[in-house]
Design goal:
By secondary structure, the chain is α/β, with parallel strands linked by helices. The chain folds into 2 domains: about 240 residues, von Willebrand factor, type A domain (Rossmann fold), CATH 3.40.50.410; about 45 residues, no CATH class. Helices cover about 35% and strands about 25% of the residues. A 6-stranded mixed sheet has the order 6-5-4-7-8-11, with helices on both faces. It is elongated and about 85 Å long.
């Protein structure tokens, strides 16, 4: 699939995030789930009543609305029958985009820019599906909350916050960023029953507290994890000296140091284990994003024309 490349830019520009609206049209199988919230909207649910979609015909029961009587079936069978409809329910979409300092990293493109592109695509796809869209942008020093609304203005507001936070990553900052556990705790305040929650992060500090928050979120929301990584995080170079920094403290390391390689691989393995436990225990969907490929490639596999919806749709 073309477009939506993992840009080598230092931050996500608003114009580029807006341009992804056209690319989002390729996500034709964006998850259609059974909503749980009892609100008017565009998603079909298991609740039955008067709505837009016909469900079935059954025998008339005392108390049924006479306007729902199926006169054709009644005339044919000589027994009163009632039409049942499947009510339309709301499916708010909440996108938590992690733009804390560890996301300012990448050998092929920055993880922060890739995360912004993924968030923009999800928002545009949600708006196209006539869903309410909002979320949280977790920047290096502060976060912005956009309450879900079915409005292009809400999406544009979210995109501007993404751009501002990704730009702030490239500037000096002294305030300590929130932990992932703290971000998830804040997310619970805006996630309503029936929400589709997308968490875009490198999950570098996922821990037991995060698992507890995911457990609570998964009780009434459909959770999808989008893990962002770079090839250098998967496997360090086998040799050479490299200089890295977190924006404040510079560090030089020797990639030929076997003990360093082992510690890195163990830390990476522990992180992946915790992530997979969330996926398995709480029935979360998981999509892997890499700076080595355009963001639309993995999202296309999950929600594109040739995707099998069940492989990526939150349960």
């Amino acid at each position: 699939m073309a477009t939506a490349l993992a840009s080598p830019a230092l931050f996500a520009e608003v114009a580029e995030l807006i341009r992804l609206r056209h690319a989002a049209a390729q996500l034709r199988h964006f998850p259609k789930i059974n909503a749980r919230a009892q609100l008017a909207g565009s998603q079909r649910s298991r609740f039955r009543g008067r709505g837009m979609d016909f469900d079935e015909v059954r025998l008339y029961q005392p108390g049924d609305d006479i306007r729902a009587i199926d006169w054709r079936v009644t005339a044919r069978t000589q027994v009163a029958h009632t039409k049942l409809y499947r009510e339309e329910k709301e499916r708010p979409i909440v996108v938590l985009c992690d733009l804390r300092p560890p996301m300012l990293f990448g050998s092929c493109g920055l993880k922060s820019v890739l995360a912004c592109e993924a968030a923009a695509l999800l928002c545009w796809a949600g708006l196209a599906a006539n869903d309410q869209v909002g979320g949280i942008v977790a920047g290096p020093a502060q976060q912005a909350d956009i309450r879900p609304r079915r409005s292009a203005h809400a999406v544009l507001d979210y995109l501007h916050r993404l751009s501002e936070a990704s730009l702030a990553l490239t500037e000096p900052h002294s305030a300590a960023p929130a932990t992932l556990a703290e971000l998830l705790s804040e997310t619970k305040k805006i996630v309503k029953p029936g929400t589709s929650l997308f968490v875009i992060s490198d999950f570098c500090d996922i821990d037991a507290d995060c698992q507890r928050h995911f457990s609570e979120l998964a009780r009434h929301a459909n959770v999808t994890l989008l893990s962002v990584s770079d090839p250098l995080e998967q496997q360090l170079p086998s040799q050479g000296r490299f200089a890295i920094t977190d924006g404040a403290v510079p560090l030089t390391f020797n990639a030929a140091d076997r003990a360093l390689q082992e510690r890195h691989q163990q830390a990476r393995s522990d992180q992946q284990t915790l992530l997979q436990q969330v996926v398995q225990r709480y029935r979360a969907a998981h999509i892997e994003l890499s700076t080595s490929e355009p963001v639309l490639t993995p999202l296309g596999r999950a929600y594109g024309r040739t995707s099998r919806q069940a492989s990526a749709t939150p349960r």
